[in-house]
Amino acid sequence: MSFEQFSIIDSTLREGEQFSTATFTTDQKLRIAHALDEFGVEMIEMTSPCASPQSEADIRAVVRQNLNARILTHIRCNRDDAVKALDTGVHGIDVVIGTSPQLMQHSHGRSIDQILDLAYDVLGFIRAQKPDVILRFSTEDSFRSREADLWRVYLAVSSWGFANRLGVADTVGVALPTRVYELVRQLVRLTNLDIEFHGHNDSGCAIANACAALEAGATHIDTTVLGIGERNGITPLGGLIARLYTLDKRYVAKYNLSLLPQLDAMIAEMCDIEIPFNNYITGSSAFIHKAGIHAKAVLADPATYEILNPDDFGLSRHIAIGHRLTGWNAVRNRAVALGLVLDDDTIRHITQHIKARADENPMQPHEIDSLLIETAVTS
Ligand code: HCA
Ligand code: CU
Questions:
Q1: How large is the average pLDDT for residues 183-210?
Q2: pTM higher than 0.85, yes or no?
Q3: Which distant-in-sequence residues (6+ apart) come within 8 Å of 16 by Cβ?
């Protein structure tokens, strides 16, 4: 298990740029990189310098910031890309090539033998050019690759000694946590390289798969802010944090958790999207308690219905009162917060009144406050 010592590779500036509405300007990329660095992610992955002239210039601009986070770029497995990547001065290079039958046929048209020749050439070249560069090799579409092919590639790459890290990629979001666990476990047993997991969320397992990878001994997890990426994206940074925090808060204590709401809000704004209402930690309803039974227990002890403490993320909980499911404890709590002295019978009476009115239309907080104040003044 590597919960105690894993690194986040945030790929908002690579995978995230592949999200339908993401087109970051240089200034935005610098803001994102600084915000991620302040949050404390260990690595930041950026789009290939071969994508466009601006992409190349932006890598150089981010490298020049001298952030704590290591700056990586993501390239195809070929020498031209490697030369360009090396020239940007990045700390690390992430090389990827498809190994599934689907991608071998329609993406690059190479056989496993050809992939191995190419990988040997490209990885060896990069290592010779820059002995201290952090070098990762990943098999795109790992979970639809034939098992024999996958192992041939992983074991060969590991035996050459050029790469520091092997990447496992659930490119189409098809893997289940059990499969991720088994593959990563085997990689940990059979190689002595760091292991990275990159998981798409097409069928809703991206966070669980990242967690399974860590349980199996993966050392690096790819995330993006809000999970943006191709199609419906990858493991969201906030979702991974929520998952690990609930296992043990200490696993995520190294990150500046109170910066998460700003990060999510910034990316939502830049991509012109809303933060989903049910988003991990930062969704608008993440800390709203509604039913009277819940409200009563949460008022007594928030841990009854909260596994995440909103204070740790610079957020606060909210108890919704003006609806038909409300309870008198929540109403009393509001009266006390307003400094009003009302006996329990009166509070119960007001609660019945709120329920009856809310059957017609939910009441707004200010309407309830007025009701409480008026009652206190006239009683
Ligand atoms: C891509 C595919 C990729 C690569 C992941 C990796 C994927 O857009 O290049 O390099 O590990 O999901 O397989 O994002
Ligand atoms: Cu991806």
A1: 98
A2: yes
A3: 22, 224, 225, 228, 229, 233, 267
